[in-house]
């Protein structure tokens, strides 16, 4: 990196361009750091120079919580928009559970699935996306029914409720440890939600569906495949014809999530997930293609897992026969 040795007391100095390159920020960010965060600098007339040692100290202060912003915080909105476009990001949602725009976008994506198209969904339990009951999620039930009428195929990939991964995940959510012989696990919300989803698939609620042909399609398992994976998902995925919705799971227990929510002004909000931002990608973008590959790999590995009938039979044996 070029150094200016004729500036000041004989020490080595960097230009603004060199300082920006050294800190991996823009020159505009350097100017803002000077104005707002007292980044050490030296002037002679209109020229500005920086010492390498000062930049190192500035970076260290930032790493230790000294109060200066991350470079990305200074990125102009227009540049953020450009970066999102390049990455294939279509939309950003606050969460699955609390952002109505997310459900609306998924509804539109389901409505756009072409005849004979494929919809893929990966989740722990689908507790926020239980599609087969209008009482649970009417916003998504209608476009799903329309897609079924167009001969769309659905693949649902859930967590095997009797797997060690399910016990681990349930323990994370409730700050507990469920051993292999711990019957308390069968009363956990996660276990009950997975079984409820399996039951909805096996016996869909069609009492309020007036169209006979649609009732038959909802009950037709040929259009709806379900597999249960023993590997805990690390993300929630919804893959439609041209859109990929991705939410990474929060790895903290329920009390950890609640403490964070309380710090953000939501002290009474009890949650088990679905409070993490969601990104919507163009499925042809790199991230969309990778997420589809991730689903396909996990789906393939779950081919030898239990069937819906096996899950319900085991649930009955464990005392859950609702």
Describe the structure.
- Helix content is 42%, strand content 15%.
- The termini are far apart.
- It has 12 helices and 10 strands.
- The strands form 2 sheets. It has a 7-stranded mixed beta sheet with strand order 4-10-9-8-5-6-7, with helices on both faces. A 3-stranded antiparallel beta sheet has the order 1-3-2.
- The chain has 322 residues and is of the alpha+beta class.
Essential attributes:
single chain, 322 residues, alpha+beta, 7-stranded mixed β-sheet, 3-stranded antiparallel β-sheet, 12 helices
Radius of gyration: 26 Å
Whole-number average pLDDT?
Answer: 78
Total DSSP helices: 12
From the helix content, strand content and strand pairing, which structural class follows?
alpha+beta
Content of β-strand = 15-25%
- Terminal CA distance: 70 Å
The stretches of 5 or more residues where confidence is low (pLDDT under 50) are: none
Number of strands: 10
Share of helix, binned:
40-55%
Largest β-sheet summary: 7 strands, mixed
Order of helices and strands: EHHEEHHEHEHEHHHEEEHEHH
What form results from the Cα inertia axes?
elongated
Query: Looking across the biggest beta sheet, what order are the strands in?
Result: 4-10-9-8-5-6-7
């Amino acid at each position: 990196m070029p150094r200016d040795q004729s500036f000041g007391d004989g020490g080595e100095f960097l230009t603004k361009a060199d300082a920006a390159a050294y800190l991996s920020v823009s020159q505009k960010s350097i100017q803002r750091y000077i104005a707002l965060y007292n980044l050490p600098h030296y002037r002679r007339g209109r020229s500005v120079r920086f010492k390498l040692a000062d930049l190192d100290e500035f970076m260290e202060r930032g790493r230790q919580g000294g109060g200066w912003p991350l470079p990305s915080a200074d990125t102009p909105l227009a540049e953020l928009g450009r970066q999102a476009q390049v990455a294939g990001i279509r939309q950003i949602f606050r969460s699955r559970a609390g952002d109505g725009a997310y459900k609306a976008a998924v509804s539109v994506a389901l409505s756009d699935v072409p005849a004979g198209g494929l919809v893929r969904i990966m989740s722990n339990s689908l507790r926020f996306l239980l599609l087969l009951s209008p009482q649970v999620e009417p916003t998504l039930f209608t476009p799903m029914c329309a897609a079924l009428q167009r001969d769309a195929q659905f693949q649902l990939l859930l967590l095997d409720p009797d797997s060690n991964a399910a016990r681990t995940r349930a323990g994370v959510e409730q700050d507990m440890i469920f051993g292999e012989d711990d019957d308390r696990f069968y009363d956990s919300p996660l276990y009950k939600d997975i079984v409820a989803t399996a039951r909805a698939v096996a016996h869909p609620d069609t009492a309020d569906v007036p169209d006979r042909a649609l009732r038959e399609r909802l009950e037709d398992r040929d259009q709806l495949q379900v597999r249960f994976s023993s590997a805990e998902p690390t993300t929630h995925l919804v893959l439609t014809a041209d859109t990929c919705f991705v939410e990474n799971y929060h790895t903290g227990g329920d009390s950890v999530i609640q403490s964070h929510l309380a710090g953000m002004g939501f002290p009474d909000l009890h949650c088990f997930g679905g409070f993490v931002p969601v990104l919507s990608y163009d499925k042809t973008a790199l991230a969309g293609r990778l997420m589809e590959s991730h689903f396909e790999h996990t789906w393939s590995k779950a081919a030898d897992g239990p069937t819906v009938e096996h899950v319900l039979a085991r649930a009955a044996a464990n005392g859950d026969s609702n």
